[in-house]
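Task: sequence design from structure.
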């Protein structure tokens, strides 16, 4: 009997000791569910704003930044700047005594010069080279002063190039010591957090950087967990395994009614579209692309996937942006028109479409609705679900007939539209010389009225060539445990983990 009591006592004591550390550290860590894992931590080679930008913004600073929770541009690593009268150069005056993480020393003008010029170096093949295509060179004036020299006026310099990932400053010493490939997995920046560990497909763990030059974050550890399925994220929220996550659109209302959670919604600066690969059959034929557009019911697709939480899209840019094409046509399902176009294209008996989608709940629902709609017109849709890496690789190489993709962006139309029609990221394999020329004009046009017309004209070309069926701009929803202050959230729903705390 004594042995049994002693055993019970030992178990209870052990249980108490197990609880003590959890209680003591409960306010030291926040766990956030993300959709899929990162591919890189190198801001000049970012592959997805959705998966990587929030983490990168914890690790790095730029010369300027969006003020947390808004699109206001404020100083960051640069205390001030002077813009030349002709708009073709800017002199930045840097903060002093800003330290890089992990002992890599002070950030200086040499690091700024290196960070930008590595992106425009043709040998580097950075996917961000288009962002900086008007950058001529960087000139170091002294240790804390650097001059940015442009080939022409750059309309998006302060709206998207400098405050986004392409404007983040990396440690020259670290990149040259490690090489780009190693650096992409072991990043060194000046941000409020540094990388502690990354186990692919399992977690990204960041710890507060003690030498951070700015206001220290209240949370010592931020862990990002790649959770693909919305249902898994919901369960993790309910069991307390994560502090912040998402839910399927159909279940958001129930979380709003639950006092244990706070639901935060923002109109997403995101574009979902049903893309068609235009350089091979069947969609190398414009009439078949148009037929597909008339076969699907966009309103039903959006309602099924987002349960009334999002509106349909009619063009690539979200409403509210100054360059939005307000008069864009609203295509409604018309099976007779679809069949007529198919007959005209010599496909009266129908055709088959292989549709690739990433492993995500919303895209799966969309795909099933598309399949059912297309069947009414005699179009057979074969859905293939792929892991995000395989999906991106296949789509970017044009290996599928059609795909469902989404793209997270900023308030600048050039940032949103620049890649389409290029060779760097263009899943539809669409090329249009007039479109490319418009992108070139828009990059340097600083007259708002003229710039707006340029991007409206570009949207009209998208519509005319019908390489995409625009679906929705979505809604970004974050669900947080009631004891978590989620901090400032940007207008497009991007988190700022360094502003988070426990209540």
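Answer:
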């Amino acid at each position: 009997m004594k042995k049994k009591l002693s055993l019970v006592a030992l178990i209870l004591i052990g249980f108490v000791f197990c609880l003590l550390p959890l209680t003591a550290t409960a306010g030291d860590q926040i766990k956030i569910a993300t959709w899929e894992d990162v591919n890189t931590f190198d801001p000049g080679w970012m592959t997805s704003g959705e998966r990587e930008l929030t983490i990168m913004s914890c690790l790095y600073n730029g010369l300027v930044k969006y003020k947390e929770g808004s699109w206001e541009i404020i100083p960051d690593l640069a205390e001030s700047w002077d813009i030349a009268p002709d708009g073709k150069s800017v002199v930045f005056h840097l903060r002093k005594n800003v330290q890089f993480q992990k002992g890599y020393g002070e950030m200086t003008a040499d690091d700024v010069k290196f960070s930008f010029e590595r992106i425009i170096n043709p040998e580097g093949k950075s996917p961000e080279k288009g962002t900086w295509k008007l950058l001529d060179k960087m000139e170091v004036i002294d240790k804390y002063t650097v001059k940015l020299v442009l080939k022409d006026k750059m309309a998006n310099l302060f709206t998207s190039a400098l405050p986004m990932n392409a404007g983040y400053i990396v440690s020259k010493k670290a990149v040259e010591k490690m090489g780009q490939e190693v650096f992409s997995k072991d990043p060194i920046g000046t941000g409020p957090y540094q990388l502690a560990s990354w186990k692919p497909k399992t977690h990204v763990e960041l710890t507060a950087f003690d030498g951070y030059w700015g206001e220290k974050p209240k949370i010592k550890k931020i862990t990002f967990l790649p959770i693909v399925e919305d249902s898994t994220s919901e369960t993790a929220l309910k069991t307390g395994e994560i502090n912040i996550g998402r839910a399927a659109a159909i279940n958001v209302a129930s979380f709003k009614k639950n006092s244990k959670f706070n639901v935060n919604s923002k109109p997403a600066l995101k574009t979902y579209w049903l893309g068609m690969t235009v350089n091979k059959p069947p969609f190398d034929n414009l009439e078949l692309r148009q037929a597909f557009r008339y076969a699907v019911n966009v309103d039903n697709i959006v309602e099924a996937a987002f349960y009334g939480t999002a509106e349909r899209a009619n063009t690539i840019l979200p409403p509210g942006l100054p360059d939005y094409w307000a008069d864009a046509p609203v295509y409604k399902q018309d099976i007779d028109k679809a069949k007529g176009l198919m007959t005209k294209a010599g496909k009266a008996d129908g055709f088959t479409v292989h549709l690739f989608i990433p492993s995500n709940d919303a895209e799966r629902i969309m795909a099933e609705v598309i399949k059912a709609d297309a069947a009414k017109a005699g179009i057979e849709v074969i859905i293939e679900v792929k892991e995000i890496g395989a999906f991106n690789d296949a789509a970017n190489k044009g290996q599928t007939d059609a795909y469902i993709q989404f793209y997270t962006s900023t308030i600048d139309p050039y940032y949103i539209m620049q890649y389409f029609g290029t060779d760097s990221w263009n899943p539809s394999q669409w090329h249009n010389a007039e479109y490319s020329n418009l992108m070139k004009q828009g990059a340097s046009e600083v007259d708002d009225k003229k710039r707006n017309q340029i991007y409206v004209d570009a949207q009209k070309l998208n519509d005319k060539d019908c390489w995409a069926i625009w679906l929705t701009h979505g809604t970004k929803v974050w669900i947080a445990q009631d004891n978590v202050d989620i901090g400032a959230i940007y207008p497009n729903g991007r988190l700022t983990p360094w502003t988070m705390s426990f209540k």
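The two ends are 46 Å apart (CA to CA).
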